[in-house]
Structure formats: C-alpha cells, structure tokens
Design goal:
The protein is an alpha+beta fold. The protein has two domains: 2-71, no CATH class; 80-284, Fumarylacetoacetate hydrolase, domain 2 (Alpha-Beta Complex), CATH 3.90.850. The protein has seven helices and 19 strands. It has helices at 41-44, 46-59, 88-95, 98-101, 109-112, 181-184, 232-242; strands spanning 2-6, 10-15, 18-21, 62-64, 70-71, 80-82, 115-117, 122-123, 129-131, 138-139, 142-148, 164-172, 174-175, 191-199, 210-215, 218-224, 250-252, 267-272, 276-284. Strands 1, 2, 3, 4, 5, 6, 7, 8, 11, 12, 14 and 17 form a twelve-stranded mixed beta sheet that branches. It is globular, with a radius of gyration of 18 Å. It starts with a strand and ends with a strand.
C-alpha cells in the first residue's frame, strides 16, 4: 500500500496515476490531550487502521495524482535521524574535496555516529526546497528513508525490519561549511520526504534498491542500497542502542557519491526502485 498526504492534510492511497481519498479513516484514531504523545499517531495505529483504509479506498473516486500537492507522508515525526558518509564512495568523495569537508575530520560512520535534523525542516515533494544562505554552496543528497512503525529500544539487527512501517525517498539538503551537520542540514524545507510511504510488506529487501537523482534532466547520482555501509537493520540496531525509536521517527540512510550544488530554479527528480519518483522544485527562501 502506498499512502500519501496531500492538500490540507488529507490522506490518500496511491493507485497508479491516481489518489483515492481515505481521510475519513483518520476519524478512528485515538484522541489525545496535552501532553501530546511523542510519536506520529497515524503511523502508530497504521496496522489497526489498514483494513478501514483499504475499504475506503475501494469506494473512493480517483483523483489525478498530477493535480495534487504532496506533503510529507509523515506529519509528526518525533525525530529525523540521519546517517553520514554511509556509502564508501561518498566518504572518499567528501574526504577528497575541500569544498565538501571544509577542514572537518571525516571519520567512518562507525566513529562518526548518527546525527539529528530539526523536525521543522521536513516537507513533502510538492512543497519544494527554499534555499537559504545563497552565498554558500548547497548540495542535494538522495537517500532511502524509512519510517519506524513500532517502538524500538536495544533492537538486534535480526529483529530490526519488523519495526519498519515503510519506505520513502529522502532528500537531505546540505549547506556546505565548517559548522556541525545538524545545523547545516536543518533549515526549513531541507528534509524532503516522499512522494508517499510504501508499506514495508511491499519492499522485502531494502538492501537491493537502485536509486538515482537528476537536476534539470542531468543525472547526478546513481547507486544501489546494496552499497550501504550500514544497512537498514544495522542502522536500527545502532540507533536504538542510544535512544528509543518511536512510530513516525524517520531515518535517512545516507547518500551515495555525486553530490553537487543546487540553485533557485532547479528541478530535482529523485527515484528509488519499489517506491517511485518525485519531482521537487528549488527556489530562494
């Protein structure tokens, strides 16, 4: 099943080139009062709601996908977690270019660890990227992203995939410079998630997916998740050894080589096998 959010926070099931509106399913979600939970309520209850969503989808009239503004498929993530230099060739690329490393020490991911991005940086494909700091280089980074489906703490890699709700395409937009990664990667709109959430049952092996990114029709990045240093299971094991993962938490798994600058007016097209393709427009903030 492919779930999207569109328009004014409506929920849809993607059916080919159309979307079937299943927003009425949200009425069955539990109601919370302050203090609100630290997880995404829809993702936490997705399996319970799934039969209702599927039934509504069969009855709903299709709407053309091309006419809709797609939002992030996850509305309220508690954390955006990202894996740096998680492809060997990208590690070599960063170490070999002063424009990328800015005299920062670039260790392997096992020593660098993970980092967090501000949840306020999250947008969907239809919202686009609004560039800040136009006097500095800002790069695209295409990544497989996955969404945690159930609470996970000290999870071993053998059980890790059972904690995944689904997969998306992620864009980790990055201002180059000497500051900490979390600052340079957290401006508004610098975490793009989409175009929809593909539930985990449709992607049995997240370690064998081709991914690619083009800018204005020119291919910039092309690789496979088979080249990840730490795969999805290892990232869940690693992250959950430090903190609890909650439903709706998003993990960006890292980008392959080929990162390069983007500018206002550019159009990014990113694709991952089994998920689809998303077009994202770049503008000045």
């Amino acid at each position: 099943m492919r779930l999207c959010r569109f328009g004014n926070g409506r929920l849809g099931v993607v059916d080919g080139d159309a979307v079937r509106d299943v927003t009425a399913a949200l009425e069955a979600l539990p109601v919370y009062r302050h203090p609100l939970p630290c997880f995404d309520v829809l993702i936490a209850n997705l399996e319970t709601l799934r039969p209702h969503i599927q039934a509504l989808s069969r009855q709903a009239q299709p709407q053309p996908l091309a006419d809709l503004k797609l939002l992030s498929p996850v509305a309220n993530p508690g954390k955006l977690i990202a894996a740096p230099v998680n492809y060997q060739r990208h590690l070599e690329e960063v170490r070999g270019s002063a424009d990328l490393h800015h005299d920062n020490l670039i260790p392997v991911i096992q020593r660098a660890g993970l980092f967090l991005k501000a949840t306020s940086s999250l947008v969907g494909a239809g919202e686009g990227i609004a560039l800040r700091k136009l006097d500095r280089r800002t790069d695209h980074e295409v990544e497989l992203a996955f969404v945690i489906g159930k609470q996970a703490s000290h999870v071993g890699r053998g059980d890790a995939l059972a904690h995944v709700a689904g997969y998306c395409i992620g864009l980790d937009i990055t201002i180059r410079g000497p500051e900490e990664r979390s600052l340079r990667k957290s401006p508004d709109s610098y975490s793009v998630l989409g175009p929809w959430l593909v539930t985990a049952d449709e992607i049995p092996d997240p370690g064998a997916l081709q991914l690619a990114l083009s800018v204005n029709g020119q291919i910039r990045q092309r690789s496979s998740t088979a080249d990840l240093i730490l795969g999805v299971s290892e990232l869940i094991e690693y992250a959950s050894s430090f903190y609890t993962l909650y439903p709706g938490d998003v993990v960006f798994t890292g980008t392959p080589e080929g990162v390069s600058p983007i500018h206002p007016g550019d159009v990014i097209v990113a694709s991952i096998d089994g998920i689809g393709t998303m077009e994202v427009k770049v503008r000045a903030a």
